Amino acid sequence: MNVAEAIEKRRSFRSLLKVEITQELIKDLAGAASLAPSCFNKQPQRFVFVYDEPYLSNLKQSLSKGNEWAYNASMIITVLSKETDDCILGDRKYFLFDTGMSVAFLMLKAQELGYVAHPIAGYDPLKVRNVINSPQDLQIIALIIFGKHNKEINPLLSEKQKQDELQRPPRKAFEEFACLNTYCLKD
Q1: Distance between CA 137 and CA 139 in Å, rounded?
Q2: Averaged pLDDT of the chain
Q3: Nitroreductase domain spans which residues (predicted)?
Q4: Candidate CATH numbers 3.40.47.10, 3.40.109.10, 3.30.360.10, 3.90.1150.10; the one for domain 3-177
């Protein structure tokens, strides 16, 4: 699969099948993430790959209402970073941007390998921190729910979520998010 195919086919499916998680798979995903560009190559991203019990079950308890579909995850990847681990140029702080790029590389690698890597923001950061035993100075940025796509729709999904499983949610038109030469958007 080439990059264009991985981008086109990547979806945040919520209907998941369990899969075996191996250290080789984790190293493939982490290796792809490590190749993302970052300011002065500081690589501020940190990941905790949670797949063994009881850690995985405990981490699932941090999920917000509405994310019960993620209980079928075979792995949950915690994404962390710290502002001071990356460039700070005046009021520009790069750690979130650079970590986000590494997450995108990880997600595209997952797609290439035939997996779903669905990032979510619906979780209790304090519970996550306690389960993974992360340092206080690291910001928990996102969780990535990981598994294989199940074509059978998860009955826990809302009607909108079920529709999103069947058809990609609409994307904004070019004119809604992009300009040529000068800022043109009506906010």
Answers
A1: 6
A2: 96
A3: 7-53, 65-148
A4: 3.40.109.10
